[in-house]
Amino acid sequence: MIDDLPPLREVIRTHDLRAKKAFGQNFLLDLNLTARIARAAGDLHDADILEIGPGPGGLTRGLLAEGARHVLAVEKDPRCLPALAEIARSYPGRLQVIAGDALEVDPLAHLTPPVKVIANLPYNVGTELLIRWMTPRDWPPFWDSLTLMFQREVAERITARPGSKAYGRLALMVQWRAEARIVLHLPPEAFTPPPKVSSAVVHITRLEAPRFPADPKVLERLVAAGFNQRRKMLRAALRGQHKGIESLLEAAGIPPTARAEEIELERWCRLARVVADA
Ligand code: SAM
Questions:
Q1: Ligand 1 proximity of 177 Cβ (cutoff 6 Å)
Q2: CATH no., domain 8-206
Q3: What is the Å distance from ligand 1's center to 76 Cα?
Q4: Which residues pair with 233 in a beta bridge?
Q5: Residue 199 Cβ contacting ligand 1 at under 6 Å
Q6: Can you give the residue ranges of every domain in the chain?
Q7: Residues 61-84 pLDDT 10s
Q8: Nearest CA to ligand 1 atom 1
Q9: Helix-, strand-, coil-residue percentages of the chain, each rounded to 5
Q10: H/E element holding 176?
Q11: Residue 182 pLDDT > 90, yes or no?
C-alpha cells in the first residue's frame, strides 16, 4: 500500500472509467510499479512535476507517495476528473489538475522550477510532445528531466548509438542536448487493457548547453535529409542541401561515401557548422 486511497480497480469501477481507444488509454494499475516509475525520475521532493495524461491517477499517486513537492496534471478525458479530485483531497495543496489537451494548453505559468516532466501517454502524443520539449526556441528549456513511457521501439530510437538500425533523427535530436537512457522495460500485461507492443520508460536529463555547437535549424535539416534516404551515400542524400556538398562533407571529416547512420553526433554538428559558414 503506498497510500490510503482505494485500489485503482475500484476507482475505475466507481467512476466507470472503461478505457477508451480514442484517448489512447492503457492504464497502469499496480501502484508499486507506478512508484518505481516515479523513483526513476530521481528525487521529487524539491521539484514541481508536470504529468501529462494522469487518467485514473496511478502514476499520479506514485509521484505523490514518492514525495513530489507539487504535481500539475493535464488530462484530456473529463471522465477522469472526479477520481483525480479524490487524490487531490488526500494530498492537500499538492495536486492541481488542468482539464484539457496537452498539445494545446500551456501549463508553464503554473510551474515553479525545477520542473520534471513525467508521463505515461498515448504513444503518438508522447512523440509529438517529446519533439516540442526538445526543440524550444531557447535552451535550456523549462524542464530539468523528462521521464516518459514509449513504445519500446521508439525508446530504442531515442537512445540509439551510431551504426545501429534505430539510430536516426530522434537519437540525434535528443542526445545533442540531453542524456537519454532506458530505465525500465514493461511487457504489454503491465497495462489494462494490454497494448499490442512492449513499452519502455526513457529518462532524459537536459544538458546546460548542447554537446557541440551547431545551428539547430541547419543541423535538423541536414540530419533529416541524411536519414530520409538512409541507404544512400551522404553525397547523394545531401545533394540538394548545398552547392559543393562533397567538399563540405570532407571539410567536416565525413567521407562523402559514408551513410547517415555511420556518422556520430560530433561530426553532424561539424557538418552543420561548415554548411552554415559556406
Ligand atoms: N497515466 C495513466 C496511467 O499510467 O495509468 C494513464 C495512461 S493512458 C496510456 C494515457 C492518458 O493520457 C489517458 O488518461 C488519456 O485520457 C490521456 N490523454 C490522451 N491524450 C491526451 C492529450 N492530448 N492531453 C492530455 N491527456 C491525454
A1: no
A2: 3.40.50.150
A3: 7
A4: 259
A5: no
A6: 8-206, 216-277
A7: 999 999 999 999 999 999 999 999
A8: 54
A9: 45, 20, 40
A10: helix 169-177
A11: yes
In sequence order, what are the beta bridge partners of 118? 51, 147
User: Is residue 1 pLDDT above 90, yes or no?
Assistant: no
- Is 51's C-beta closer than 6 angstroms to any atom of ligand 1? no
Q: How confident is the model at residue 12 (pLDDT cuts 50, 70, 90)?
A: very high
Does ligand 1 lie within 6 Å of residue 95's CB atom?
no
- The predicted-structure confidence for 79-128, as pLDDT tens digits, reads as follows 999 999 999 999 999 999 999 999 999 999 999 999 999 999 998 899 99
Average pLDDT, whole number, for the chain? 97
Same fold, 8-206 and 216-277: no
pTM of the model: 0.96
Say which CATH superfamily domain 216-277 falls into: rRNA adenine dimethylase, C-terminal domain (1.10.8.100)
124 C-beta closer than 6 A to ligand 1: no
Buried b (16+ CB within 10 A) or exposed e, 233-256: bbbebbeebbeebbebbebbebee
Q: What angle do CA 15, 87, 193 make, to 5 degrees?
A: 50
Q: CA 28 to CA 13: how far, in whole Å?
A: 15
The pLDDT of residue 123: 85
Closest residue by Cα to atom 17, ligand 1, is: 53
27 Cβ inside 6 Å of ligand 1: yes
Model confidence pLDDT, tens digit, residues 23-54: 999 999 999 999 999 999 999 999 999 999 99
In the reported structure, the alpha carbon of residue 181 is separated from the centroid of ligand 1 by a whole-number distance in angstroms of: 23
Q: Is the pLDDT score of 243 beyond 90?
A: yes
* Residue in 120, 127, 133 to alter for ligand 1 test, most ligand atoms within 8 A of Cβ: 120
- The grid cell for 87 is 487524490
